[in-house]
Automatic annotation (TrEMBL):
It comes from the Bacteria. Residues 66-256 form the ABC transmembrane type-1 domain. Keywords: Cell membrane, Membrane, Transmembrane, Transmembrane helix, Transport. Its main location: membrane. It comes from Propionibacterium freudenreichii. This is Oligopeptide ABC transport system membrane protein. One of its GO terms (biological process) is transmembrane transport. One of its GO terms (cellular component) is plasma membrane. PROSITE patterns: ABC_TM1. InterPro entries: BP-dependent_transpt_permease, MetI-like, MetI-like_sf. The chain crosses the membrane at residues 7-27, 64-87, 108-125, 131-149, 230-252.
Amino acid sequence: MRRASLVVGVGLLTVVVVFALVGLFWLPDDPVKVQAQQALLRAGGDHLLGTDGYGRDILARLMVGARSCLLVGVVSVAIGAIVGVPVGIWSGMSRPKVGRRIMQGSDILYAFPAILLAILLAAANGSGTTLTAMSAIGIAAVPAFARVANSATRGVMSHDYIAASRSSGIGWVEVARSHVLPNIAPVVLVQSSSSLGMAVLAEAALSYLGLGTPPTTPTWGRMLYNAQPYMYADWLQVLWPALFIAIAVLGFNLTGDGLREIIDPRLREDS
């Protein structure tokens, strides 16, 4: 029971990943082909979940949307971790005054949410690009990774073996690589899982606003936008993408909670 959240989270993520992988080899129909004569068909027959207002198969678009969602989420979180973790380690290993200055610079990014960053990047690179969504979500994730890495690094630096390593002539870079990074990796892993849930939600929001992936690319957020005019006539068009967004976000969050419980000994004792 203590691992229930991890089991449920991994189970939900397995559904999303399998759904995306199956879409690589098989699709029930062309997810982007407009077929006006088949618009708003009910579920059944050749279209297991029906069609949208443009006659496109909903199931096929959900499967392709799962790939887009996972791709943008994983790449954006990787950007946040690659930039934020070194910044956090640097600040954690620096003198307190220097570390505070570094973290203050990182905290400035908190004033720029992913949607605002996407608008700024769209003005520079053009709206409706996958790169815009990845960059905006990734930059917005940097402060969270920096804070987690900074806190964990300061905890590692308080141990005696760090002073012993320094006294033996080992440089700061080697200390960070050999001692700090391996010890903070579990904490970064937990943060990555939680950030993936936020990235999925942010990608859906950006796609809904037209600031994410290109309009021709099926995404869950774009499906919500396209289904909005028909939500009263056929509410299932809204339900399916919203359900998969909820499954993915809940899966990542529960997985992060489960990993945190396993990694943090205080939570294990409380449970």
